[in-house]
Amino acid sequence: MTPSRAAGLRALLVQLVRFGLVGAAGFAVDIVVFNALRLTVLSPEVIAAGPLLAKTVSTSLAILTNWVGNRFWTFSRQRQANTVREGAEFFAVSVAGMGIGLACLWVSHYVLGYTSVLADNIASNVIGLALGAAFRFSLYRLWVFAPSRAAGWRHPEPDGIQSMEVSSREAEPAA
């Protein structure tokens, strides 16, 4: 393996770890808010669509948490100069990812009839989260924070981690 390839793989691994840690923070927000709402004001005994509404609110707050973490840490070297466009794209991908989790919850709760708090958590916070996370990471990396879209926007990494991009000079072996 060439040194530039090894550096690229290391950078990808670091990015995946950071994505996971930011996701863990978002997950904590999501699960706490979801269960607080699901067990109180948005209980299915109070509002029939309560679990779906609780999940929508909790995931929206988690999306905001994740955008800040991913913009300023996970994908900090690839963020766009146009914050509004980047934010709109991030939220579009996140809402689509939220749709995956909501679909899992809907199928479990309303189609299959698994209506317990545990079943709702497994459907939305395990199955839906795993499927949604794979979808979101792929689109964040390939579209929202794509290195090719970060033209002109660079700042040094505080911990010395190098960018995912390898210039043509770095990719060529030394003569």
From TrEMBL:
Name the UniProt key words of this record, in alphabetical order.
Membrane, Transmembrane, Transmembrane helix
Q: How does it sit in the membrane?
A: Multi-pass membrane protein
Q: Which residues form a coiled coil?
A: none
- State which residue ranges cross the membrane: 12-34, 46-69, 90-110, 122-144
Query: Which branch of life, at top level?
Result: Bacteria
Question: Where does the protein principally reside?
Answer: membrane
What Pfam families is this protein classified in? GtrA_DPMS_TM
InterPro entries in the cross-refs = GtrA_CellWall_Glycosyl (IPR051401), GtrA_DPMS_TM (IPR007267)
Biological process terms from the Gene Ontology for this record are: polysaccharide biosynthetic process
The record places domain GtrA/DPMS transmembrane at 18-145
Q: Where in the cell is it found?
A: Membrane
Q: Which GO terms describe its cellular component?
A: plasma membrane
The entry's family comment says: Belongs to the GtrA family.
Name of the molecule in the record = Putative flippase GtrA (Transmembrane translocase of bactoprenol-linked glucose)
Q: Which organism is it from?
A: Paramicrobacterium humi
Q: What is the lineage of its organism?
A: Bacteria, Bacillati, Actinomycetota, Actinomycetes, Micrococcales
